[in-house]
Design a protein that fits this description.
By secondary structure, this protein is α+β, with helices and mostly antiparallel strands. The protein has a domain at 47-141: Immunoglobulin-like, CATH 2.60.40. The chain is built from 1 helix and 6 strands. It has a 3-stranded antiparallel beta sheet with strand order 1-2-5, with no helix packed on it. It has a 3-stranded antiparallel beta sheet with strand order 4-3-6, with no helix packed on it. The chain is elongated, with a radius of gyration of 28 Å.
């Protein structure tokens, strides 16, 4: 019986050393981050040359609900530009493909919009503040 135990001790020690060696052999992962558009030759033209947009929430008559947004752009927009507002909840990932936003509203400008002029966009139905509103995306499509 003692001989069997003496044989198992080196085997157990070899197994432990192999597991420790495998655990320490974790590869290093290098991640390179670059700005949007830096990786390809595709030139993206934003209508009006807009580089920033300020978004303010507009409360409904019941302050527990958001009825829309006021968007202010740093550059003027021409008539015919379409503004799309996408609102995401906290469990939505706007960067993931096929992620459906909580609310989407699209408006086409009937006349030019001057720079730094707030433009109010009302949703089709108000969003409850308790619905974990997390982020908003503004998409501009030229005429």
């Amino acid at each position: 019986m003692r001989r069997n135990k003496k044989r198992l001790i080196p085997l157990a020690l070899a197994l432990v050393l192999a597991l420790v060696g495998a655990a320490l052999a974790v590869p290093a992962i290098t991640v390179n981050v670059q700005e949007i558009g830096a990786g390809g030759p595709k030139v993206v033209s934003v209508p009006g040359g807009v580089s920033t947009a300020d978004v303010d929430w507009v409360l409904a008559t019941n302050p527990d609900y958001v009825k829309g947004v006021k968007v202010t752009f740093d550059q003027p927009l021409d008539a015919g530009v379409t503004i799309i507002v996408k609102v995401y909840a906290s469990d939505d990932d706007p960067t993931a493909p096929n992620t459906a936003p909580t609310t989407v509203k699209s408006v086409t400008l009937s006349s030019a919009l001057a720079a730094n002029t707030p433009y109010e966009i009302d949703f089709d139905s108000p969003i409850a503040i308790g619905s974990n509103i997390n982020s908003v995306a503004i998409v501009l499509i030229g005429p």
